[in-house]
Specification:
This protein has a 7-stranded mixed sheet, with helices on both faces. The protein has 7 helices and 7 strands, in the order ααββββαβαααβαβ. Helix 3 links the parallel strand 4 and strand 5. The protein is α/β, with parallel strands linked by helices. Helix 3 crosses helix 6.
Length: about 240
């Protein structure tokens, strides 16, 4: 991060709530102490799921990675989200953050969510918006370069960077996939964030900031915002 980027970030984004926090606040409102909570694509150290220790009846994490440093009280399963190693109708709430952009077979994942959710259960996911400029740039860059770029820009290790395909990152895609899986869309929200990918250059960060402030101000431009947060639910069983 350059000094100019840091100065602009402090001045114009000091009071902005990051999409990650908005997402967690949403989960907080939905979660009940009697619930079974599944983090789909939880990460090797379950960083988000561990925040819910003692706040739910059962915590489950599923990911393809090798788990490390997982606290007691969290059940982890190494597995594909398209083939969840869980029985039918056993989960009340599913959360998934920065995972759906990597799904190569989202239709199967949606159907697996519908299978493991109890009637009336809810799934929430946060993922980059298809029409965000960062997403469009990423789509033009071969996946083989993403690890090095992300490490330079964000400092994240290359082993924690996965191929991106963006098959469920627009409203039309989500609408189609939800309908074919039997899930209902409760809400579809566009969220903005400071231009984090441009922190390495002050001038680029300034331009990105001007763009972000523009699309955040006008509702007609909300489809260009950086993130989408989707809430789905499985219809309750008919009486």
């Amino acid at each position: 991060m350059t000094k100019l980027s840091e100065k602009l970030l402090r001045k114009y984004y000091a009071n902005n709530v990051h999409p990650y926090r908005i997402y967690e606040q949403h989960i907080d409102r939905l979660l009940k102490t009697s619930d079974t909570l599944l983090d789909a694509g939880c990460g090797r150290t379950v960083p988000v799921l561990r925040n819910y220790l003692g706040r739910a009846n059962r915590l489950i994490g599923v990911d393809l990675v090798e788990f490390t440093d997982v606290p007691a009280g969290i059940d982890t399963y190494a597995g594909d989200l398209a083939r969840l190693p869980l029985p039918d109708s056993c989960v009340d709430l599913i959360m998934s953050r920065s995972v759906f952009e990597h799904l190569t077979d989202p239709e199967r994942v949606y159907r697996e969510f519908a299978r493991v959710l109890r009637p009336g259960g809810i799934a929430v996911f946060l993922t980059p918006n298809m029409w965000d400029y960062g997403t469009m740039a990423a789509r033009l860059i071969p996946n083989s370069f993403h690890g090095k770029i992300v490490k330079y820009v964000e400092g994240r290790e290359e082993e924690d960077t996965f191929p991106i395909v963006y098959k469920t990152n627009s409203q039309s895609q989500v609408t189609r996939l939800a309908a074919t899986s039997g899930l209902t869309i409760d809400s579809f929200q566009y969220l903005s964030q400071y231009p984090n990918y441009l922190l390495f250059n002050g001038a680029l960060f300034f331009l990105g900031m001007c763009y972000e402030k523009l699309i955040s101000r006008f509702d007609a431009l909300k489809f260009l915002r950086g993130w989408i947060m989707v809430t789905l639910h499985k219809p309750a069983a008919s009486v």
